[in-house]
Amino acid sequence: MNAERGTTGYGEVVERDVVIVGGGPAGLTAAARLASAGLTVTILDEQPELGGQYYRRPAPAVAGHWGDHRPEGGRLIARVRAAGVECRTGHLVWGVDDDGRTLLASDAADHPVRLRARHLVLATGAFERVFPFPGWQLPGVTTPGFAQHLAASDHTTVGDRVVLAGSGPFLLPVACSLIELGVSVAGIAEAGRPYRPSPRALGTLGHPARLRELASYAARLARARVPIWQETVVLRADGRDRVSSVTLAAAARPAHPVRTVEVDALCVGYGFRPQTDLARMLGCEVRVDAASGDAVPVTDAAGRASRAGVYVVGEAAGIGGVHAAKARGLAAAHDILAREGRATVAASETRRVASARRRLERFIALTDSLYPGPQALLTTLAPALPADTVVCRCESVRALEIRAVAQGSADGDLNATKAWTRAGMGPCQGRECGFAVAGLVRSVTSHRGADDGGSRVEIFPSRLPVRPVPLATLLELAGPESQKGDA
Protein backbone atom coordinates (compact mmCIF):
# COMPACT_ATOMS: atom_id res chain seq x y z
CA MET A 1 0.00 0.00 0.00
CA ASN A 2 1.36 3.43 -0.94
CA ALA A 3 0.22 5.68 1.88
CA GLU A 4 1.41 8.50 4.07
CA ARG A 5 2.54 7.43 7.53
CA GLY A 6 2.45 10.48 9.78
CA THR A 7 5.40 12.76 9.12
CA THR A 8 7.79 10.03 8.00
CA GLY A 9 7.13 10.55 4.28
CA TYR A 10 5.57 8.43 1.59
CA GLY A 11 6.02 4.99 0.12
CA GLU A 12 4.99 1.47 0.95
CA VAL A 13 5.56 0.35 4.54
CA VAL A 14 6.17 -3.35 5.24
CA GLU A 15 6.08 -4.75 8.78
CA ARG A 16 7.03 -8.36 9.44
CA ASP A 17 8.37 -10.62 12.16
CA VAL A 18 11.55 -11.07 10.12
CA VAL A 19 13.02 -9.21 7.14
CA ILE A 20 15.90 -10.90 5.33
CA VAL A 21 18.12 -8.92 2.96
CA GLY A 22 19.74 -11.20 0.38
CA GLY A 23 18.29 -14.20 -1.46
CA GLY A 24 21.41 -16.36 -1.61
CA PRO A 25 22.08 -19.65 0.22
CA ALA A 26 22.21 -18.12 3.73
CA GLY A 27 19.12 -15.94 3.35
CA LEU A 28 17.08 -18.69 1.70
CA THR A 29 18.03 -21.25 4.35
CA ALA A 30 17.02 -18.89 7.17
CA ALA A 31 13.79 -17.88 5.42
CA ALA A 32 12.62 -21.46 4.86
CA ARG A 33 13.20 -22.44 8.50
CA LEU A 34 11.59 -19.32 9.97
CA ALA A 35 8.50 -19.33 7.80
CA SER A 36 7.92 -23.05 8.33
CA ALA A 37 7.66 -22.27 12.06
CA GLY A 38 4.91 -19.72 11.48
CA LEU A 39 6.74 -16.39 11.47
CA THR A 40 5.92 -13.76 8.86
CA VAL A 41 9.01 -13.42 6.69
CA THR A 42 9.92 -11.14 3.81
CA ILE A 43 13.08 -11.76 1.79
CA LEU A 44 14.46 -9.12 -0.55
CA ASP A 45 16.99 -9.36 -3.34
CA GLU A 46 17.98 -6.81 -5.95
CA GLN A 47 18.19 -9.43 -8.69
CA PRO A 48 15.09 -10.44 -10.68
CA GLU A 49 15.31 -13.99 -9.31
CA LEU A 50 16.26 -15.48 -5.95
CA GLY A 51 19.38 -17.58 -5.62
CA GLY A 52 22.23 -15.13 -5.11
CA GLN A 53 25.46 -15.62 -6.99
CA TYR A 54 25.84 -19.28 -6.10
CA TYR A 55 22.29 -20.40 -6.89
CA ARG A 56 21.76 -17.88 -9.69
CA ARG A 57 18.91 -19.10 -11.88
CA PRO A 58 19.68 -19.81 -15.54
CA ALA A 59 17.68 -18.08 -18.23
CA PRO A 60 14.61 -20.11 -19.33
CA ALA A 61 16.10 -20.83 -22.73
CA VAL A 62 19.33 -22.05 -21.15
CA ALA A 63 17.54 -24.16 -18.53
CA GLY A 64 15.32 -25.72 -21.19
CA HIS A 65 18.30 -26.83 -23.25
CA TRP A 66 21.07 -27.42 -20.71
CA GLY A 67 19.15 -27.93 -17.47
CA ASP A 68 19.83 -26.33 -14.09
CA HIS A 69 23.54 -26.25 -13.19
CA ARG A 70 22.66 -26.27 -9.47
CA PRO A 71 19.26 -27.94 -9.03
CA GLU A 72 19.55 -27.89 -5.24
CA GLY A 73 19.16 -24.12 -5.46
CA GLY A 74 15.90 -24.47 -7.31
CA ARG A 75 14.63 -26.89 -4.69
CA LEU A 76 15.58 -24.52 -1.86
CA ILE A 77 13.80 -21.61 -3.55
CA ALA A 78 10.71 -23.80 -4.01
CA ARG A 79 10.77 -24.62 -0.28
CA VAL A 80 10.95 -20.94 0.57
CA ARG A 81 7.94 -20.09 -1.56
CA ALA A 82 5.96 -23.10 -0.32
CA ALA A 83 6.58 -22.01 3.29
CA GLY A 84 4.78 -18.74 2.59
CA VAL A 85 7.76 -16.39 2.52
CA GLU A 86 7.02 -13.08 0.80
CA CYS A 87 9.70 -12.94 -1.92
CA ARG A 88 10.46 -9.44 -3.17
CA THR A 89 12.91 -9.66 -6.04
CA GLY A 90 14.07 -6.57 -7.89
CA HIS A 91 14.23 -4.72 -4.56
CA LEU A 92 17.39 -2.78 -3.72
CA VAL A 93 17.93 -2.07 -0.02
CA TRP A 94 19.98 1.11 -0.14
CA GLY A 95 19.90 2.63 3.33
CA VAL A 96 18.52 3.03 6.83
CA ASP A 97 15.90 5.60 7.91
CA ASP A 98 16.46 8.26 10.56
CA ASP A 99 15.18 5.96 13.30
CA GLY A 100 18.26 3.80 12.74
CA ARG A 101 16.15 0.69 12.34
CA THR A 102 13.83 0.96 9.32
CA LEU A 103 15.32 -0.27 6.05
CA LEU A 104 14.95 1.90 2.97
CA ALA A 105 14.52 0.12 -0.35
CA SER A 106 13.29 0.71 -3.88
CA ASP A 107 11.21 -1.77 -5.84
CA ALA A 108 11.61 -2.83 -9.46
CA ALA A 109 9.79 0.33 -10.59
CA ASP A 110 12.02 2.53 -8.35
CA HIS A 111 9.19 3.29 -5.91
CA PRO A 112 10.34 3.63 -2.28
CA VAL A 113 9.64 0.92 0.30
CA ARG A 114 10.20 1.00 4.08
CA LEU A 115 10.67 -2.27 5.94
CA ARG A 116 10.44 -2.87 9.66
CA ALA A 117 10.81 -6.09 11.62
CA ARG A 118 11.60 -7.37 15.09
CA HIS A 119 14.47 -9.29 13.55
CA LEU A 120 16.65 -8.23 10.62
CA VAL A 121 18.79 -10.85 8.93
CA LEU A 122 21.51 -9.41 6.70
CA ALA A 123 22.64 -11.95 4.11
CA THR A 124 24.08 -9.36 1.75
CA GLY A 125 26.85 -11.57 0.39
CA ALA A 126 30.21 -10.46 -0.92
CA PHE A 127 31.92 -8.87 -3.90
CA GLU A 128 35.13 -9.78 -5.65
CA ARG A 129 38.46 -8.36 -4.56
CA VAL A 130 40.37 -6.83 -7.45
CA PHE A 131 43.70 -5.08 -7.81
CA PRO A 132 44.45 -2.87 -10.83
CA PHE A 133 47.22 -3.34 -13.37
CA PRO A 134 48.01 -1.66 -16.69
CA GLY A 135 45.36 -2.72 -19.19
CA TRP A 136 42.76 -3.91 -16.69
CA GLN A 137 40.13 -1.71 -18.36
CA LEU A 138 40.54 -3.45 -21.74
CA PRO A 139 37.53 -5.36 -23.13
CA GLY A 140 37.97 -9.03 -22.34
CA VAL A 141 39.45 -8.40 -18.89
CA THR A 142 36.98 -9.40 -16.19
CA THR A 143 36.71 -11.16 -12.85
CA PRO A 144 36.51 -14.92 -12.30
CA GLY A 145 33.04 -14.52 -10.77
CA PHE A 146 31.68 -12.90 -13.91
CA ALA A 147 33.22 -15.64 -16.06
CA GLN A 148 31.67 -18.28 -13.79
CA HIS A 149 28.27 -16.62 -14.02
CA LEU A 150 28.38 -16.58 -17.81
CA ALA A 151 29.63 -20.16 -18.03
CA ALA A 152 27.50 -21.88 -15.40
CA SER A 153 24.26 -19.90 -15.69
CA ASP A 154 24.17 -18.83 -19.33
CA HIS A 155 26.53 -21.33 -21.02
CA THR A 156 28.36 -18.36 -22.52
CA THR A 157 32.13 -18.03 -22.57
CA VAL A 158 34.22 -14.93 -21.89
CA GLY A 159 36.59 -15.96 -24.67
CA ASP A 160 38.19 -18.85 -26.53
CA ARG A 161 41.63 -18.74 -24.90
CA VAL A 162 41.66 -17.59 -21.27
CA VAL A 163 44.10 -17.08 -18.42
CA LEU A 164 42.80 -17.00 -14.86
CA ALA A 165 44.85 -15.14 -12.27
CA GLY A 166 44.76 -13.83 -8.73
CA SER A 167 44.52 -16.00 -5.65
CA GLY A 168 42.17 -18.40 -3.93
CA PRO A 169 40.47 -21.75 -4.48
CA PHE A 170 37.68 -20.16 -6.54
CA LEU A 171 39.96 -20.02 -9.58
CA LEU A 172 39.85 -23.82 -9.90
CA PRO A 173 36.06 -24.35 -10.35
CA VAL A 174 35.92 -21.38 -12.71
CA ALA A 175 38.59 -22.96 -14.88
CA CYS A 176 36.68 -26.26 -14.86
CA SER A 177 33.44 -24.52 -15.88
CA LEU A 178 35.22 -22.90 -18.82
CA ILE A 179 36.81 -26.19 -19.87
CA GLU A 180 33.38 -27.88 -19.92
CA LEU A 181 32.30 -25.30 -22.52
CA GLY A 182 35.29 -26.04 -24.74
CA VAL A 183 37.37 -23.02 -23.72
CA SER A 184 41.14 -23.35 -23.87
CA VAL A 185 42.39 -22.36 -20.42
CA ALA A 186 45.98 -21.38 -21.10
CA GLY A 187 46.91 -21.40 -17.44
CA ILE A 188 46.12 -20.35 -13.87
CA ALA A 189 48.40 -17.78 -12.23
CA GLU A 190 48.13 -18.20 -8.45
CA ALA A 191 49.82 -15.54 -6.33
CA GLY A 192 50.53 -18.00 -3.52
CA ARG A 193 51.80 -21.55 -3.38
CA PRO A 194 48.91 -23.47 -1.80
CA TYR A 195 49.30 -26.56 -4.00
CA ARG A 196 52.77 -27.54 -2.91
CA PRO A 197 53.12 -30.21 -0.21
CA SER A 198 53.54 -28.73 3.26
CA PRO A 199 52.76 -29.66 6.87
CA ARG A 200 49.96 -27.09 6.85
CA ALA A 201 48.36 -28.62 3.74
CA LEU A 202 48.12 -31.94 5.57
CA GLY A 203 45.29 -30.37 7.56
CA THR A 204 43.00 -30.90 4.57
CA LEU A 205 43.01 -34.62 5.36
CA GLY A 206 40.65 -33.83 8.23
CA HIS A 207 38.04 -32.55 5.76
CA PRO A 208 37.53 -35.43 3.30
CA ALA A 209 34.48 -33.95 1.53
CA ARG A 210 36.31 -30.73 0.70
CA LEU A 211 39.45 -32.68 -0.22
CA ARG A 212 37.45 -34.80 -2.70
CA GLU A 213 36.09 -31.62 -4.22
CA LEU A 214 39.59 -30.21 -4.65
CA ALA A 215 40.83 -33.50 -6.11
CA SER A 216 37.99 -33.46 -8.63
CA TYR A 217 38.98 -29.99 -9.84
CA ALA A 218 42.66 -30.96 -9.98
CA ALA A 219 41.89 -34.09 -12.02
CA ARG A 220 39.86 -32.15 -14.58
CA LEU A 221 42.57 -29.53 -14.93
CA ALA A 222 45.21 -32.24 -15.34
CA ARG A 223 43.20 -33.95 -18.08
CA ALA A 224 42.92 -30.63 -19.90
CA ARG A 225 46.67 -30.02 -19.35
CA VAL A 226 46.09 -26.68 -17.65
CA PRO A 227 49.28 -25.45 -15.95
CA ILE A 228 49.08 -23.78 -12.54
CA TRP A 229 51.82 -21.17 -12.18
CA GLN A 230 52.21 -20.65 -8.44
CA GLU A 231 53.71 -17.50 -6.92
CA THR A 232 52.76 -15.65 -10.11
CA VAL A 233 50.78 -12.42 -10.64
CA VAL A 234 49.61 -10.28 -13.54
CA LEU A 235 52.05 -7.57 -14.59
CA ARG A 236 49.98 -6.08 -17.43
CA ALA A 237 47.44 -6.81 -20.15
CA ASP A 238 47.98 -5.63 -23.72
CA GLY A 239 45.74 -5.24 -26.75
CA ARG A 240 44.07 -2.70 -28.99
CA ASP A 241 40.33 -3.23 -29.25
CA ARG A 242 40.48 -6.18 -26.84
CA VAL A 243 42.99 -7.89 -24.63
CA SER A 244 45.33 -9.99 -26.76
CA SER A 245 48.07 -10.96 -24.30
CA VAL A 246 48.86 -11.01 -20.60
CA THR A 247 52.33 -10.63 -19.13
CA LEU A 248 52.95 -12.40 -15.84
CA ALA A 249 55.52 -11.77 -13.15
CA ALA A 250 56.84 -13.54 -10.08
CA ALA A 251 54.78 -12.55 -7.03
CA ALA A 252 57.96 -11.65 -5.13
CA ARG A 253 59.10 -9.34 -7.97
CA PRO A 254 55.84 -8.08 -9.54
CA ALA A 255 57.55 -5.51 -11.77
CA HIS A 256 59.71 -8.08 -13.58
CA PRO A 257 58.07 -10.19 -16.36
CA VAL A 258 58.53 -13.95 -16.48
CA ARG A 259 56.21 -14.95 -19.35
CA THR A 260 53.72 -13.54 -21.85
CA VAL A 261 50.65 -15.55 -22.89
CA GLU A 262 48.39 -14.87 -25.86
CA VAL A 263 44.73 -14.72 -24.83
CA ASP A 264 41.43 -13.18 -25.83
CA ALA A 265 40.15 -13.03 -22.22
CA LEU A 266 41.74 -12.56 -18.82
CA CYS A 267 39.96 -13.20 -15.50
CA VAL A 268 41.62 -11.75 -12.40
CA GLY A 269 40.42 -11.79 -8.80
CA TYR A 270 41.87 -12.11 -5.32
CA GLY A 271 38.98 -13.78 -3.55
CA PHE A 272 35.98 -12.01 -2.05
CA ARG A 273 35.17 -9.22 0.41
CA PRO A 274 32.15 -9.23 2.76
CA GLN A 275 29.40 -6.76 1.86
CA THR A 276 28.94 -4.96 5.18
CA ASP A 277 27.69 -1.48 4.27
CA LEU A 278 24.18 -2.12 5.53
CA ALA A 279 25.38 -3.67 8.79
CA ARG A 280 27.56 -0.63 9.45
CA MET A 281 24.68 1.75 8.67
CA LEU A 282 22.59 -0.07 11.27
CA GLY A 283 25.29 0.61 13.83
CA CYS A 284 26.61 -2.93 14.11
CA GLU A 285 30.10 -3.19 15.51
CA VAL A 286 32.72 -4.29 12.99
CA ARG A 287 36.37 -5.17 13.25
CA VAL A 288 38.91 -4.56 10.53
CA ASP A 289 40.70 -7.82 9.85
CA ALA A 290 44.42 -7.15 9.73
CA ALA A 291 45.12 -10.02 7.32
CA SER A 292 42.49 -9.12 4.72
CA GLY A 293 41.81 -5.43 5.33
CA ASP A 294 38.07 -6.19 5.32
CA ALA A 295 35.42 -4.88 7.69
CA VAL A 296 33.94 -7.97 9.37
CA PRO A 297 30.84 -7.70 11.60
CA VAL A 298 31.32 -8.78 15.20
CA THR A 299 28.81 -11.58 15.80
CA ASP A 300 28.24 -14.49 18.13
CA ALA A 301 27.87 -18.13 17.08
CA ALA A 302 24.25 -17.53 16.04
CA GLY A 303 25.11 -14.52 13.88
CA ARG A 304 23.78 -11.96 16.35
CA ALA A 305 25.41 -8.58 15.84
CA SER A 306 26.02 -5.94 18.50
CA ARG A 307 22.77 -4.21 17.48
CA ALA A 308 19.79 -5.91 19.14
CA GLY A 309 17.62 -7.86 16.72
CA VAL A 310 20.16 -7.75 13.87
CA TYR A 311 21.85 -10.87 12.51
CA VAL A 312 24.62 -11.02 9.92
CA VAL A 313 24.95 -14.35 8.11
CA GLY A 314 26.51 -15.93 5.05
CA GLU A 315 29.42 -14.32 3.27
CA ALA A 316 28.56 -10.96 4.82
CA ALA A 317 29.73 -12.44 8.15
CA GLY A 318 33.03 -13.60 6.63
CA ILE A 319 34.03 -15.45 3.48
CA GLY A 320 33.53 -19.18 3.84
CA GLY A 321 31.67 -20.69 0.89
CA VAL A 322 28.19 -22.07 0.39
CA HIS A 323 28.23 -24.73 3.11
CA ALA A 324 29.27 -22.25 5.80
CA ALA A 325 26.74 -19.72 4.50
CA LYS A 326 23.85 -22.16 4.86
CA ALA A 327 25.01 -23.24 8.32
CA ARG A 328 25.16 -19.61 9.45
CA GLY A 329 21.70 -18.93 8.07
CA LEU A 330 20.24 -21.92 9.89
CA ALA A 331 21.96 -20.99 13.16
CA ALA A 332 20.43 -17.51 13.01
CA ALA A 333 16.98 -18.95 12.30
CA HIS A 334 17.21 -21.26 15.32
CA ASP A 335 18.20 -18.37 17.57
CA ILE A 336 15.31 -16.22 16.35
CA LEU A 337 12.83 -19.04 16.90
CA ALA A 338 14.12 -19.54 20.43
CA ARG A 339 13.72 -15.84 21.19
CA GLU A 340 10.24 -15.73 19.68
CA GLY A 341 9.07 -18.83 21.48
CA ARG A 342 7.19 -19.79 18.34
CA ALA A 343 8.75 -23.21 17.89
CA THR A 344 10.98 -25.53 19.81
CA VAL A 345 14.13 -26.56 18.02
CA ALA A 346 15.22 -30.05 19.00
CA ALA A 347 18.41 -30.08 21.02
CA SER A 348 19.86 -32.68 18.68
CA GLU A 349 19.28 -30.42 15.68
CA THR A 350 20.88 -27.47 17.46
CA ARG A 351 23.93 -29.56 18.32
CA ARG A 352 24.18 -30.89 14.76
CA VAL A 353 24.09 -27.40 13.25
CA ALA A 354 26.60 -26.05 15.78
CA SER A 355 28.96 -28.96 15.13
CA ALA A 356 28.74 -28.50 11.36
CA ARG A 357 29.36 -24.77 11.70
CA ARG A 358 32.45 -25.29 13.89
CA ARG A 359 33.84 -27.87 11.46
CA LEU A 360 33.32 -25.51 8.54
CA GLU A 361 34.91 -22.61 10.42
CA ARG A 362 37.99 -24.74 11.00
CA PHE A 363 38.17 -25.53 7.30
CA ILE A 364 37.82 -21.83 6.45
CA ALA A 365 40.73 -21.01 8.76
CA LEU A 366 42.81 -23.75 7.15
CA THR A 367 42.04 -22.51 3.64
CA ASP A 368 42.89 -18.94 4.61
CA SER A 369 46.27 -20.12 5.92
CA LEU A 370 47.15 -21.83 2.64
CA TYR A 371 46.66 -18.74 0.47
CA PRO A 372 48.46 -15.41 0.85
CA GLY A 373 46.69 -12.82 2.97
CA PRO A 374 45.39 -9.87 0.93
CA GLN A 375 47.25 -7.33 3.05
CA ALA A 376 50.48 -9.23 2.54
CA LEU A 377 49.84 -9.17 -1.22
CA LEU A 378 49.25 -5.41 -1.07
CA THR A 379 52.62 -4.91 0.55
CA THR A 380 54.23 -6.34 -2.59
CA LEU A 381 51.82 -5.26 -5.33
CA ALA A 382 51.07 -1.65 -4.37
CA PRO A 383 54.64 -0.25 -4.52
CA ALA A 384 55.18 -1.89 -7.93
CA LEU A 385 52.02 -0.47 -9.54
CA PRO A 386 53.04 1.84 -12.44
CA ALA A 387 52.27 5.50 -11.82
CA ASP A 388 49.95 6.01 -14.81
CA THR A 389 47.72 3.01 -14.00
CA VAL A 390 44.05 3.94 -13.59
CA VAL A 391 43.11 2.77 -10.10
CA CYS A 392 39.61 4.25 -9.73
CA ARG A 393 37.82 3.65 -13.01
CA CYS A 394 34.65 5.47 -11.92
CA GLU A 395 36.52 8.76 -11.43
CA SER A 396 39.58 8.07 -13.64
CA VAL A 397 42.09 8.52 -10.82
CA ARG A 398 45.61 7.24 -11.42
CA ALA A 399 48.12 5.74 -9.03
CA LEU A 400 50.43 8.75 -9.19
CA GLU A 401 47.62 11.08 -8.02
CA ILE A 402 46.78 8.87 -5.06
CA ARG A 403 50.42 8.58 -4.01
CA ALA A 404 51.03 12.33 -4.33
CA VAL A 405 47.98 13.27 -2.26
CA ALA A 406 48.64 10.60 0.38
CA GLN A 407 52.17 11.91 0.84
CA GLY A 408 51.09 15.54 0.77
CA SER A 409 47.79 17.17 1.66
CA ALA A 410 46.11 14.00 2.99
CA ASP A 411 49.05 13.33 5.34
CA GLY A 412 48.69 9.57 5.09
CA ASP A 413 44.97 9.45 5.89
CA LEU A 414 42.93 7.10 3.67
CA ASN A 415 39.65 9.00 3.80
CA ALA A 416 41.36 12.34 3.28
CA THR A 417 43.03 10.84 0.21
CA LYS A 418 39.61 9.74 -1.01
CA ALA A 419 38.20 13.25 -0.51
CA TRP A 420 41.08 14.99 -2.28
CA THR A 421 41.32 12.64 -5.27
CA ARG A 422 37.69 11.38 -5.47
CA ALA A 423 39.04 7.83 -5.68
CA GLY A 424 36.24 5.64 -4.37
CA MET A 425 33.54 8.31 -4.72
CA GLY A 426 31.99 7.02 -7.95
CA PRO A 427 28.97 4.73 -8.44
CA CYS A 428 30.75 1.66 -7.01
CA GLN A 429 31.62 3.57 -3.79
CA GLY A 430 35.06 2.00 -3.61
CA ARG A 431 34.03 -1.62 -4.03
CA GLU A 432 36.35 -1.90 -7.03
CA CYS A 433 39.19 0.37 -6.01
CA GLY A 434 39.06 0.66 -2.20
CA PHE A 435 41.40 -2.26 -1.61
CA ALA A 436 44.02 -0.81 -3.97
CA VAL A 437 43.65 2.79 -2.77
CA ALA A 438 44.24 1.67 0.82
CA GLY A 439 47.31 -0.27 -0.27
CA LEU A 440 48.75 2.68 -2.17
CA VAL A 441 48.26 5.03 0.79
CA ARG A 442 49.97 2.61 3.15
CA SER A 443 52.82 1.95 0.70
CA VAL A 444 53.85 5.61 0.49
CA THR A 445 53.42 6.45 4.18
CA SER A 446 54.95 3.38 5.84
CA HIS A 447 58.31 5.10 6.19
CA ARG A 448 56.62 7.77 8.35
CA GLY A 449 55.25 5.19 10.78
CA ALA A 450 51.76 4.93 9.29
CA ASP A 451 52.27 1.20 8.89
CA ASP A 452 52.53 -0.66 12.18
CA GLY A 453 52.86 -4.16 10.81
CA GLY A 454 49.26 -4.71 9.79
CA SER A 455 47.40 -3.96 13.05
CA ARG A 456 46.28 -0.56 11.77
CA VAL A 457 44.23 -0.96 8.61
CA GLU A 458 41.87 1.76 7.40
CA ILE A 459 38.70 1.25 5.38
CA PHE A 460 36.31 3.52 3.54
CA PRO A 461 33.26 4.44 5.64
CA SER A 462 29.78 3.22 4.74
CA ARG A 463 27.74 5.90 2.97
CA LEU A 464 24.04 6.28 2.23
CA PRO A 465 22.87 5.28 -0.34
CA VAL A 466 24.68 1.96 -0.59
CA ARG A 467 24.00 1.97 -4.33
CA PRO A 468 22.95 4.79 -6.68
CA VAL A 469 19.22 5.59 -6.30
CA PRO A 470 17.13 7.63 -8.77
CA LEU A 471 16.34 11.14 -7.53
CA ALA A 472 12.66 10.45 -8.23
CA THR A 473 12.75 7.66 -5.60
CA LEU A 474 14.08 10.05 -2.96
CA LEU A 475 11.51 12.70 -3.85
CA GLU A 476 8.67 10.20 -3.61
CA LEU A 477 10.02 9.00 -0.27
CA ALA A 478 10.03 12.55 1.09
CA GLY A 479 6.49 13.30 -0.15
CA PRO A 480 4.90 16.23 -2.01
CA GLU A 481 6.52 18.84 0.24
CA SER A 482 9.87 18.15 -1.42
CA GLN A 483 8.49 18.92 -4.88
CA LYS A 484 6.82 22.27 -4.23
CA GLY A 485 9.69 24.16 -5.79
CA ASP A 486 9.06 22.38 -9.12
CA ALA A 487 5.67 23.97 -9.64
Protein traits:
alpha/beta, seven-stranded mixed sheet, five-stranded parallel sheet
Describe the structure.
The chain is of the alpha/beta class. The protein has helices at 25-36, 60-66, 71-82, 144-154, 171-180, 208-223, 277-281, 322-340, 347-370, 374-384, 399-407, 414-421, 434-445, 471-478; strands at residues 12-21, 41-45, 86-89, 92-96, 103-106, 112-122, 126-128, 141-142, 161-166, 184-190, 228-230, 232-239, 243-250, 253-262, 265-269, 272-274, 286-288, 295-297, 310-312, 390-392, 397-398. The strands form six sheets. Strands 1, 2, 3, 4, 5, 6 and 19 form a seven-stranded mixed β-sheet that branches. It is globular.
Q: Quick gist of this model?
A:
This protein has 487 residues and is α/β, with parallel strands linked by helices. It has helices at residues 25-36, 60-66, 71-82, 144-154, 171-180, 208-223, 277-281, 322-340, 347-370, 374-384, 399-407, 414-421, 434-445, 471-478, and strands spanning 12-21, 41-45, 86-89, 92-96, 103-106, 112-122, 126-128, 141-142, 161-166, 184-190, 228-230, 232-239, 243-250, 253-262, 265-269, 272-274, 286-288, 295-297, 310-312, 390-392, 397-398. The strands form six sheets. Strands 1, 2, 3, 4, 5, 6 and 19 form a seven-stranded mixed β-sheet that branches. Strands 8-15-9-10-11 form a five-stranded parallel β-sheet. It has a three-stranded antiparallel β-sheet with strand order 12-13-14.
